[in-house]
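User: Hi! I'm working on a homework problem where we have to compare a predicted structure to a textbook description. Could you give me the structure for the chain below?
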Amino acid sequence: MNLDELFNQNNRSHGYGHEHHYEKRYNYPSHHSDNQHGYLKQQLINKLQLNPKLKMLLMVAAILILVVVVATIIILYPILMKLIGYVGENGIQGLINVVWSGSK
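Assistant: Happy to help. Predicted structure tokens:
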């Protein structure tokens, strides 16, 4: 490859030039230029509208995730309140000392 080809951006000398011309000539979709995110989202919406079992499965999964998150918050709430109370009494330095020395 000489300097003229480099500055003209001639793709014949590069390894990817052949595939690029093939995609252009035969209207083959390229992963570089084709943005299919909107198309995939529309396909998912169509599948949800046409398949009530899939819609029900996603609703049950969303409710299950919500229940797990709420249960985790309820379980961790007393521990968090004890931690806040301890930091209120002893300060952050007291908490660091307890964590650093470990449980005795």
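For your comparison, note the following. The radius of gyration is 30 Å. The mean pLDDT is 77. Good luck with the assignment!
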